Amino acid sequence: MCLPIVRCTSYQQQQWPILYDFISASVKVITNHWMYRWLLMCKASDSYARLIMFYIFVLSYTFCSDVQSAIIRTVTRDKYMLKPLINFPFLSQSLREFWGRRYNQLIGTIFRESIFQPVLQHLSSKTIVSLIVFVVSSLLHVHLAAVTFTDSRANMSNMIFFILHGIACTIEAHTPFKLPAPLSWLFTQLFLLATASLQIGAFTRVGPDFYTVNAPLLFQQKWIPKLPVPKFCPK
Question: Where does the Wax synthase domain lie (predicted)?
Answer without folding.
Answer: 83-164
